[in-house]
Amino acid sequence: MGEDLAMRKFLSSFGAMTFLLSGINAYAVDLPAGAKKVTMEEFKAFADGKHVKVEIFDLEKPVTADLVWSWKKGTITGKANVDGKMMDVKTKLTFKDGKACSNGKGEKPSCHSIYIDGNKFYEVRDDMKVHAVSTIG
Predict the structure, then answer these.
(1) In contact, 129 and 113? CB cutoff 8 Å
(2) How far is C-alpha 27 from the chain's CA centre?
(3) Could you tell me the pTM of the whole model?
(4) Apex CA 69: angle with CA 66 and CA 75, to 5°?
(5) What is the spatial distance between Cα 27 and Cα 130, in angstroms, rounded to a whole number?
(6) If pLDDT is split at 50, 70 and 90, which confidence band does 58 have?
(7) φ, ψ for residue 117, nearest 5 deg
(8) Apex CA 93: angle with CA 91 and CA 49, to 5°?
């Protein structure tokens, strides 16, 4: 049951790459002052089909992943390390109101604004806290 719960939490949160937010933020990172909010077309041109290394900061456990965002397939796929356990990732990728959204099977979509700075993109929550940082390459 614990592993199922961890996987569901991960996919939900990665589903937005629907995040389960923690009141305690042990892994916080600030949005760089020079980061530019981008449209989904700009984000697509920047990240479509490229491998990215991801760190998620607002979950209860440390999460890193190697992922590919594919607009053609409408998916985010790859492998994730959730608190030391490797898991396969395959979530649905959509867009709504200028935000990138993801959701695991049966989960409500979680959406974030996208900011770009150099070779990194930042998934930012509505409260302007950084959910995740992805590095291309």
Answers:
(1) no
(2) 14
(3) 0.79
(4) 110
(5) 10
(6) confident
(7) -145, 110
(8) 95
